[in-house]
């Protein structure tokens, strides 16, 4: 969202347009003479994501020059013809940040400070450096086998405008409020930014709550997770950041929003849950999983079997269970014969077989 905002600022200054071709700046990239700025903003460029199929985990902690990153992207070719579909791709926003640097003649961190941070008075938002706890910065941790393990640290020079910004929940709420209040870009351009094609906006996504329109973006690097939401009708901003996930982010946000909108909500783990396990028993399947999940009751315990593994699950809330050792969560909708399996930030939807 920060990068998209700065692109729209440059458009307002007539230094760029949505129709400008990528070839204007990087003709060596696949389909550069076809890809527009608008298609990059909408993730419709067809460019390959530099974090996929590039041995990314082997070099993620090493610095890379712009030229090296361009070679990595160019070397993977194109995934699809520009404009034919949307597919989230970090390469789009990395290149947009390089374009910002070319147009302004200065570095992305300096443009970020001038155009957003200083303009709206953000106190704790900046371009990331190696983590330093003396700056009150956290490292990230992954939960596995009942323990938290420190993650390898990304060298943020890799990501630039695709994910190198450090911030706090307070600053993110200030940012998104100012964005929607017209303090950073004009309302017509905000309307363009929030116009959805295939559920993608330009640097922003739809996050409606029931019938209430909402907008925002999620972020993840290593086990750092972030989420920012804004509901214009209610003038409500919500932001969440963590340096490690056990309880699913989607459920944390859902709970916060239910409380904000005065919906019925029971805080997980807060009350004893007496459950009739029999209504959950059965075999569940999904077209997105290569295996089936079998749910059984054994001595008043709920047991899951899948992919050669067996685990017991404890009740968390009504129709909601967890296995603490693996960090796996299971949410049932017995009326619809549905099961959601949640692990960190992944959600799998399964249907009960008849």
Report on this structure.
This protein is globular. It has helices at 2-12, 37-41, 56-59, 66-75, 90-104, 108-120, 169-180, 187-193, 249-260, and strands at 126-127, 141-144, 147-150, 165-166, 205-206, 215-221, 224-231, 236-242, 282-285, 293-297, 302-306, 309-317, 320-323, 328-333, 338-343, 346-352. Strand 13 (320-323) and strand 14 form a beta hairpin. Helix 1 packs across helix 5. It contains nine helices and 16 strands. The strands form four sheets. It has an eight-stranded antiparallel barrel with strand order 9-10-11-12-13-14-15-16. It has a four-stranded antiparallel beta sheet with strand order 5-6-7-8, sandwiched between helices. It is of the alpha+beta class and 354 residues long. The two termini are 44 Å apart.
Ordered list of secondary-structure elements with their pairings:
Blueprint: H1 2-12, H2 37-41, H3 56-59, H4 66-75, H5 90-104, H6 108-120, E1 126-127, E2 141-144, E3 147-150, E4 165-166, H7 169-180, H8 187-193, E5 205-206, E6 215-221, E7 224-231, E8 236-242, H9 249-260, E9 282-285, E10 293-297, E11 302-306, E12 309-317, E13 320-323, E14 328-333, E15 338-343, E16 346-352
Antiparallel strand pairs: 1-4, 2-3, 5-6, 6-7, 7-8, 9-10, 9-16, 10-11, 11-12, 12-13, 13-14, 14-15, 15-16
Helix pairs in contact: 1-5, 1-6
CATH superfamily of the largest domain: DD-peptidase/beta-lactamase superfamily
Look at the structure and give the CATH class of the largest domain: Alpha Beta
Overall mean confidence score, pLDDT: 96
Annotation, overall tally of beta strands: 16
Alpha carbon gap, first and last residue: 44 Å
Helix content: 25-40%
Low-confidence stretches: none
């Amino acid at each position: 969202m920060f990068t998209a905002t700065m692109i729209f600022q440059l458009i307002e200054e007539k230094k760029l347009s949505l129709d400008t071709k990528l070839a204007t700046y990087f003709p060596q990239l696949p389909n550069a003479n076809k890809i527009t700025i608008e298609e990059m903003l909408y993730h419709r460029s067809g460019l390959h994501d530099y974090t996929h199929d590039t041995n990314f985990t082997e070099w993620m902690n090493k610095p890379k020059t712009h030229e090296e990153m361009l070679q990595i992207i160019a070397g993977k070719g194109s995934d699809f013809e520009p404009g034919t579909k949307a597919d989230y791709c970090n390469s789009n926003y990395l290149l947009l940040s390089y374009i910002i640097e070319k147009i302004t003649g200065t570095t992305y961190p300096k443009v970020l400070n001038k155009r957003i941070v200083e303009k709206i008075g953000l106190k704790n938002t900046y371009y990331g450096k190696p983590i330093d706890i003396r700056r009150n910065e956290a490292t990230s941790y992954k939960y596995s086998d009942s323990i938290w393990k420190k993650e390898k640290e990304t060298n943020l020079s890799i990501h630039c405008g695709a994910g190198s910004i450090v911030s706090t929940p307070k600053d993110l709420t200030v940012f998104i409020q100012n964005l929607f209040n017209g303090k950073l870009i004009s309302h017509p351009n905000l309307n363009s930014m929030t116009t959805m094609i295939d559920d993608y906006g330009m640097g922003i996504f739809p996050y409606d709550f029931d019938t209430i329109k909402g907008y925002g973006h999620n972020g993840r690097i290593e086990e750092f997770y972030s989420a920012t939401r804004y509901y214009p009708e209610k003038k409500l901003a919500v932001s969440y950041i963590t340096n490690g996930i056990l309880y699913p982010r989607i459920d944390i946000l859902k709970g916060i929003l239910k409380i904000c909108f005065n919906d019925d909500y029971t805080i997980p783990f807060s009350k004893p849950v007496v459950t009739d396990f029999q209504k959950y028993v059965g075999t569940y399947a999904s077209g997105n999983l290569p295996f089936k999940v079998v749910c059984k009751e054994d001595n008043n315990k709920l047991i899951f079997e899948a992919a050669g593994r067996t685990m017991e699950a404890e009740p968390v809330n009504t129709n909601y269970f967890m296995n603490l050792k693996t960090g796996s969560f299971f949410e049932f909708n017995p009326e619809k014969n549905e099961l959601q399996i949640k692990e960190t930030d992944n959600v799998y939807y399964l249907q009960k077989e008849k």
